[in-house]
Design a protein that fits this description.
eight-stranded mixed beta sheet
């Protein structure tokens, strides 16, 4: 097998790390680095004071899911896929590895046996914008596990019990589609960080961040209520009691915030192109949707006002 060449990768060193390359079954080169491996598209920058290069991977997979990482890298090429040991990596290096990544994929446990819910809470403390997907073989209590992970801060849970393509689970294709969607439209980091700092730590804030972070997904109020194991009426009551906007308004706000990030990453897109990319027929219908959302948010307190400030008025 003839592998593509990447000048300067093999044997490149600096004071912190040694980088080497190894072939994969699907003909890609992977950097071997402390704490994991990544599929490269360019020579790594100097790590400076240590840590991992923040631009290395589009998707990070826990080191305990090596087979899944290789399948994702093959099916989603040329996107960069890396693995890190999320359990043993320091908070600083984990932050550096994930800060620009669209998604973190975890198994039920870390390489040392730490539960995924614990790892999710650890990541959420510093990275409110990163999407976290959990892959687990559900022998039983499927819905209970989904609720548990969602309350910890996960954005999706996928069952890998039934045999499917690539020898993995029947949820492999939905997992890949969820990854593609997040790669196309990543969540807006600055806006979600600002909102996370402003929100009090509560169950309602977890629901709010879930809605805002998943603006590129096909969410509705019923799906959100099911994800968190409550009735629609209970969900609405909890948000109303906390004086937050309703779930439908939060979902629409998440969609518009994701548009802000897409416009930031693709400044050459016209308003018509941006509107069609998010399911609007015209730029005028996008502006009308945004005007209605701003009017709804204006009827609420601090969070509504903060969301109004963060929505780009130029869209």
């Amino acid at each position: 097998m003839t592998l593509p060449t990447h000048e300067g990768l093999t044997g490149w060193t600096n004071r912190q790390y040694f980088y080497s390359t190894r072939p994969c079954p699907y003909g890609l080169l992977i950097w071997s680095v402390p704490g994991g491996t990544v599929v490269p598209s360019e020579r790594p920058r100097s790590a400076g004071g240590g840590g991992m290069d923040r631009r290395r991977a589009d998707i990070i997979v826990d080191a305990g899911c090596g087979t899944l990482a290789e399948v994702i890298a093959r099916r989603l090429a040329p996107h960069r896929v890396g693995t890190v040991d999320t359990e043993t990596l320091s908070d600083r290096d984990l932050h550096s590895a994930l800060v620009d990544s669209a998604t973190l994929v975890l198994g039920a446990r870390g390489t040392g046996g730490l539960l995924a819910a614990v790892l999710i809470r650890r990541v959420r403390k510093r990275l409110p914008h990163v999407s976290i997907l959990v892959c687990e073989a559900f022998a039983s209590e499927h819905s209970e596990r989904i609720i548990q992970y969602s309350k910890a801060g996960a954005d999706g849970v996928f069952d890998v019990t039934a045999p499917g393509r690539d020898g993995l689970g029947s949820d492999l294709d939905p997992l890949l589609e969820a990854l593609r969607s997040r790669l196309r439209h990543p969540a807006p980091e600055p806006e979600l960080r600002a909102l996370d700092e402003a929100l009090p730590r509560s169950g309602a804030s977890t629901i709010i961040m879930y809605c805002l972070r998943n603006g590129s997904q096909q969410l509705n109020v019923s799906a959100v209520a099911s994800t968190f194991g409550m009735a629609i009426r209970t969900l609405r009551k909890r948000l109303r009691r906390a004086e937050f906007p309703g779930c439908d308004a939060l979902i629409r706000a998440g969609r518009h915030l994701t548009m802000v990030e897409s416009a930031r990453r693709h400044p050459h897109w016209s308003r018509e192109e941006l509107a069609r990319c998010f399911g609007f027929q015209t730029a005028a219908s996008l502006r009308m949707s945004r005007w209605r959302l701003l009017r709804t948010l204006g009827a609420h307190g601090g969070l509504g006002r903060r969301l109004r400030e963060l929505l780009d008025p130029s869209l």
